[in-house]
Design goal:
single chain, alpha+beta, 60s Ribosomal Protein L30, Chain: A, 10 strands, 31% helix
Length: 222
């Protein structure tokens, strides 16, 4: 079945849904997962993003997303100027990413409170994106669902405790995957949900033993 979104594309500012609208969403995803106002961003451009991105406004779109703009924001072409006024420092470089989608970016962003996030993501067409790595750990989610990213120690029973809190909050799980670098180290739980996750549920999960960080991304049209 063909989605009407595939035919018409997203409502956006810019010449390309993959190089502009998708890039805005990549920047916005990094901002959301950081959990604070970015003050510094180092952005690596891979493949087509590196080769043709500047001509399509990919660089300005990524910075616009980091400032919280949406793909239809008329300020996107002025994002560099606005970022400097807002106090967001940014730099770009080309990067080779192993087995990455050609429209990929690697963002290292930090906020004023010392939080830092490294995120590799791809613009997959039609304004859609996919997050491929977080802080060096392979993941796979798109932002099409409300998404919880939970970093914890790799101990037995932790997933059951997390899902129990979601059950108490009447939140249904749509998709879920666990990603870890090694056994007994840290693990990332990526949980996509049908409903919004109540703030109290996020707090209760964060208070669980061995949970180090909880990040919540709420989809744009939720």
């Amino acid at each position: 079945m063909i989605d009407i979104f595939d035919i018409l594309g997203p409502i956006m500012v810019g010449p390309s849904s993959s190089h502009t609208a998708g890039a805005v969403r990549i920047g916005g995803m990094a901002r959301s997962l950081l959990g604070g106002e970015p003050v510094r961003a180092e952005i690596g451009l891979h493949g087509s993003f590196a080769e043709t991105g500047p001509g399509h406004g990919t660089d300005r779109a990524l910075v616009a997303g980091l400032m919280g703009m949406k793909p239809d924001d008329l300020r996107i072409p002025r994002s560099f100027e606005l970022a400097k006024k807002q106090g967001l420092e940014f730099s770009f470089h080309n990067v080779e990413l192993k087995e990455a989608h050609p429209n990929s970016a690697l963002l290292t962003v930090s906020d004023g409170e010392g939080r830092t996030l490294e995120m590799q993501a791809a613009s997959t067409g039609g304004g859609r994106i996919r997050v491929d790595r977080l802080n060096g750990i392979a993941v796979n989610f798109t932002g099409a669902f409300n998404t919880l990213i939970i970093r914890s120690n790799d101990v037995p029973g932790k997933l059951a405790e997390v899902t129990r809190e979601l059950e108490h909050g009447n939140v249904n799980i749509a998709n879920m995957n666990l990603c870890r670098a090694k056994r007994g180290g840290s693990v990332l739980m990526v949980i996509e949900t049908d409903q919004r996750v109540p703030p109290v549920a996020c707090t209760l999960i964060e208070e669980l033993d061995d949970v180090m960080q909880v990040t919540y991304y709420e989809r744009e049209d939720a």
